[in-house]
Amino acid sequence: MRGTGPRTLMHRFFRTRTRTLLTGAVLLVLSAGVALLVSATLAGRNDKPAVAARGFAPPRQPRSPAKFSASAAQSPLPRGVSVVARARGRRVAVFGHPGARSPALRIAERRLDGHRIPLVFLVTARRPGWIRAYVPARPNRRQGWIREADVTLAQDPYRIRINLTGHRIEVWKGRRIVERGRIATGKALSPTPTGRYYVTDLVKPPNPNGFYGPYAFGLSAFSPVYTSFEGGNGQVGIHGTSDPSALGRNVSHGCIRVANAAITRLARRVPIGTPVDISRS
Amino acid sequence: MSNTDLPGFAELDRDGAIEEAASKVDGHTRQAFLRRTGAFMGAGAAFAALPAGAFAQGGASKGDVAILNFALTLEYLESAFYAEALSKGALKGETKKFADVVAAHEKTHVTTLKSVLGSSAVKEPQFNFKGTTASQSTFQQTSIVLEDTGVKAYLGQAGNIKAKAVLKSAASILAIEARHASWIRNIVGNGSSPSPAPESFQSSLTMSAVLAAVQGTGFITSMPSASAGGATSGNPSVTG
After folding, report:
1. Which of A202, A169, A201, A208 minimizes the C-alpha distance to A185?
2. Is A253 among the catalytic positions?
3. Which of the residues in chain B have pLDDT under 70?
4. End-to-end CA distance of chain B
């Protein structure tokens, strides 16, 4: 039997009152939320999308950019890709460090039978306004700093690996080998120098069946023995051959000889500036 | 939008009333107004409010210049993409028509943004579209991504733009990019999937998110590729 005394009635009154107040508060909060959403939607404020695409999630407040450089959209160079610098003019000043007052060296473009040979460098580091690069000068593997304004830069996915002991050449494009073959290398008295070098020029001899074959790449490497050779300064190269039976042996004056078919493919594929790594194994 | 879909400026304003009103408001001569409007017609009338080179003289906030250069970079990307696709000659039918129209729009966006930014405009980067322009199907898929990204990028910056004229101009380009996105989506999905209008509300992307996405494509490269060949004829002098 339900109680009807004053105490019981008072309890019932307060329970009912509390439930009503709670219900009202919830409705009030919900109404306010809906009103805010509707007003925000109708207002169409352009600093915040009125409603997010999914689930009415609060949008992230955009931040005003202070500056923008197109380089921010550039993709970084992939692994295995080199940077090659080509001189804008006919000579380039090479400095000992960025901002040095006077150059340590000036390198001029060469001419071959009246034809200009482009002046190219292999970049090893960059600073604002400057590049550090291997240069085609003695001693071997010489580097210096060049004003970036003096060159144009290009990316090169190729690199050449020379294994002197195994008498093998490998040409890589990115992460895959695109050419491999047997080579002849320097004999004991005129060894092929080891280390990192790069392709400095490509010459097409008048006789494709002659001593140098159809093409000869000049490298930034110099013979440790010869300071002059056939009118040159002892520059080491990669070229074809009129004697393919010598491939696989140490017979050259320091150059790397490859099959004529291989040097022809390389001439069509490998850009000037491509790195050449020469090692004993 | 095809140029034949709507009347040109001269047909719309036969009696010259709009030109006269505008010249009074701006204090420009009728001839100057016509010249300026002609330069900016491609991007819509909103750009007429922005004189050429205005931003090069410090006439806008750094933020607005940054946003316009951000937009210009995306327009460079799109413009180069459509130009390369058309030069490859692999497109046909409605896709070819789409590329013809959109290429002209994107080129106009580039010209206009460069004109407005003047010497403050960023230089055009190098591009490598990695063969995506060589076939119709890869072109279509890439186009959808580029146009969708363009829409989200413009929308993402809308709240950051301070100058009303810039905001109107960006909005006029945003609308066109949205039309492009819907058009190519409709070509590919034939009205179903992908849907030409997939959402009730367009989502946006922040500048950093757009840049990360563009970087991910590898389409904008830091420098051109070195090319092989160019042998010099002569007698070699290497050691042999």
Report:
1. A169
2. no
3. 1-59
4. 65
CA–CA dist A139, B229 (Å, integer): 28
Q: How many residues does chain B have?
A: 240
Task: Give residue B126's pLDDT.
Answer: 86
Q: How many angstroms separate the CA atoms of A274 and A257, rounded?
A: 17
Cut 0.80: pTM above it: no
pLDDT of residue B77: 96
Closest CA to A160 of A247, A254, A250, A278: A278
Are the beta carbons of B73 and A205 separated by less than 8 Å?
Answer: no
Beta strands in A25-95 (DSSP E): 82-87, 91-94
Distance CA A247, CA A257 (A): 7
Q: Do B224 and A226 touch (CB under 8 A)?
A: no
Spatial distance between the Cα atoms of A139 and B157, rounded to a whole number of angstroms:
55
Q: Which segments of chain A does DSSP mark as H helices, in order?
A: 6-43, 260-269
Q: Record the tokens describing residue B111, joined without a space.
A: 């010209």
pLDDT in tens, B66-121: 999 999 999 999 999 999 999 999 999 999 999 999 999 999 999 999 998 999 99
Q: How confident is the model at residue A62 (pLDDT cuts 50, 70, 90)?
A: low
Residues of chain A contacting residue B69, judged by C-beta atoms under 8 Å apart = 68-70
Helices (H) and strands (E) in chain A, counts: 2, 18
Distance from CA of B124 to the nearest CA of A (A): 8
